[in-house]
Amino acid sequence: MTATTLVSKEAAPRAAGTARGRRGRRRARTVALLFVLPALLLLGALVVYPVLFSVGRSFFDASGTRFVGGGNYAEMFRDPATLKAIRNTTIWVVVAPALLTGLGLILAVLVEKVRWATAFKLLLFMPMAVSFLAAGIIFRLAYDEDPDKGVLDAAVVGVHDVFKGTSSYPTARGREGLLDRGGDGSYLSHAAASPGESVTLPMVGVLPGDLPRDASPARPAARRAAAAGELRGVVYLDFTPGGGGEQGRVDPKESGLPGMKVEALRDGRTIAGTTSSSDGSFRFTGLQEGSYTVKLPASNFAPPYQGVSWLGPTLVTPAIIGAYLWIWTGFAMVLIGAGLSSLPRDALEAARMDGANEWQIFRRITVPLLAPVLTVVFVTLVINVMKVFDLVYIIAPGPVQEDATVLATQMWLVSFGGGNNQGLGSALGVLLLLLVIPAMVFNVRRFRRSQR
User: Looking at the chain, which residues constitute the CATH 2.60.40 domain(s)?
Assistant: First the structure.
C-alpha cells in the first residue's frame, strides 16, 4: 500500500466530518432564523417600514401628491415655531439629563448611609410606576395659579403672607362723592379737617368674608367727640344688613373696619399714621393747628398676592422639566446605586486609612470609578428627553403650548394637531431620528465594550 493511498483513506473521514459540520451549522442557522423571523417581521412592520415611509413622505407636500424635494426641510428651519421647538429641545437635552445624573449620583451615595435604604429607594422609584399621562395631570394641578387649587402657589402665597402680610380689604372702595380717589389707588377725605374735629370715611364693597371677626359697630366711635389738638375719625362699612340706612351716615347696624391704615396729610406730606381699632375708630394726637387731609393708603386695597405663574411663557419649560425630574430621579438613583455597590471597597477603605475625607473619596475615587455608569445613564436620559411628548402636551396650557413645545410635540401639532401637513411633520420626525441615532450608537458601543 502506497503512502498516497494511506493519506486518501485518512482524509476521507475527515472530509465527511467537515461536510456534516457544515450541514449542522447551516441547519442551526436555519432554525435560529425561523425563531427570529417573527420578531424580524414585527420589527420591519413597526419600525423599519414607518421610518422609510416617513423619510419618503418628507419629500412631498402636505397632500402627498407633489414632490417638493428638500422644501419641507427648508421650511422647517424657517418656521419660528419649529425653531422654538429646537431651542426648547436643546434646553431639555442640556439641563434634564445633567440634573438627573447629578441627583441620582448624590442620592445613591447618601442612600448607602441611610438606615432604611431599601424603603427610601422604593419611595423615590415609585413615580416610575406612574404613567406620564397621570404625572402630567398631577403636575398640571400642582402648578395651577389659583392658590386654592395649586399646592405650589398655596405654599408660596402662605410664605409671602407670613413675611410681607396681605391687604386688609382688597375689594373695598370709597363711597362715591364722599371720598376722593387718589392716583395711586388710595382714598382721601373729601374735605379738610382740623384738630378737634371728627372725620367719617365711608367704604363699600367689602366682602362678608373679609370683615374681621373682631369688628364691632362703628356708631359709638362716630359719636365720640375729639379732644383739643386731636383729629379723630372712623372708617366704617357704609352698608346696613337687610337694607335701610342713610348713605354717608353711620347707622346703628353698620360695622367699623378694623386694621385699616390711616394717614394724616398736610400740604401733601404724611404727618402721622395710625391703624383703626375694632370699631373702625382712629385718632391722631399732638397735631399742630392747620388743615389736614385724612388718607387711606392704597396698601389697604391691594389685591392679594397670587403666587408665581408656573405655567406662564417664562417658566413653563422649567416647570415641566421639574415634573420630569420627579419621575426619573429614582431611575437614575437605582442604576447608579447598582454601579456603586459593585465598586471595590478596598480602594475606599485604603483611602480612608490614608486620611482622605468623604468629599475627597467621593470626588477622586467614587466619581472616576463610576464614570462608565454615569455616562450610560446620561446618554440614556438624553435619548429619552429628545422624545418627551406626554408631559409637554398635558402640562402646558393651550395659550403657552407654543412656548413649551419640543420637537416631538411640534411634529404632532404640525401633522395632526391642526396643521394637517404630514410632509413637514415627517421632516420633523426625520430630524428627531437623526438627533437620536448618534446617542443610540454611542450607548450600544459602550454596552458592547463592557460585555467584552
Answer: 173-301
